[in-house]
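Weekly structure sync - notes
Attendees: PM, LS, DV (DV joined late)
Agenda: review two folding runs queued last week.

Item 1: First target. Sequence and structure tokens pasted below for the record.
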Amino acid sequence: MKQRLVHKSYRVDPLRLAKARKALGAASDAEAVRMAIEMVIDHEETMAVARKVMKRHSQVLRELAAIDREPESDQGSSERKLAMPRSRDKTDSSTDLISQERSEREEALVASLGRGKVKNAGKRKHQ
């Protein structure tokens, strides 16, 4: 698809425009301005994706913290304990089952970080 270009008139510092043109490797001043505008747009899109990822990351961390605060067993204890590493010599199968279920849920939450990716994030067709 061909870009639709319109004529605009702006006042710019000629020294800064020359520096930008040289830095971007543009053939003309107009091309340098177009390239700079594209860079700004790409930057904004990248930042939007980064904000979305950080938001999802913080949600997953909160959910993992909530899992760690769950009680170890439902045997009359209403206290919430932090998950501590268990020794291997315990043979209580109900405790092992709870631990296994917690691990599976943690793995599912961590795997969910990869879901919901933005299509073509940060990739624009430059013409």
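Item 2: Second target, run right after the first with the same settings.
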Amino acid sequence: MKVLITGTVAVGKTQLLDQFEQLHIRRTVVLPNVAKQLIKHFSSENHLLAFQDAVFAEQIENEISAEKEHPKVILCHRGVLDVMAYAELYGHPLRQEWKAWTRSEYDQVIFLTEDEKSKDTPQKTFYSEVAKKIRNQIVNTGLPFQTLHYPSWCEDRRQRNLKINLLSLLF
């Protein structure tokens, strides 16, 4: 089973997956956030499409490599849906290979988002726009997905509840 963990910017995906990885669940592989690893190589907005292409290539390489280990579960930290959402956000065309990969490769998508009571800021407005693009991409693929909301004001409870929800979806 390949599960894509995606969602709002700075929603806690990395913290959640780091904690999940520390559980050392047998035959479970947690893939890293490829975009975060590659961003330092793309400093200009003129290179945003090239950045999305690089993220796509690295993401599928990681996913294929993980599949060779024959795990029970592969947890993808972000994925090709995110590549498509960011490309769309910045007005770039969606490549056919991105669409083909997304529709065929994920068994489940978990979309993490803040609750609506979070404080309004310009940054949150941008994050909300990103979240809408990601959610639209999920819906357009027809993949099964689960949306998990959390109260942004409660870090410890949020992580515990997300972990419990994630575990119940997977096992």
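Discussion on item 2: The domain at 2-118+136-151 is CATH 3.40.50.300 (Rossmann fold).
Action: LS to circulate a short write-up before next sync.
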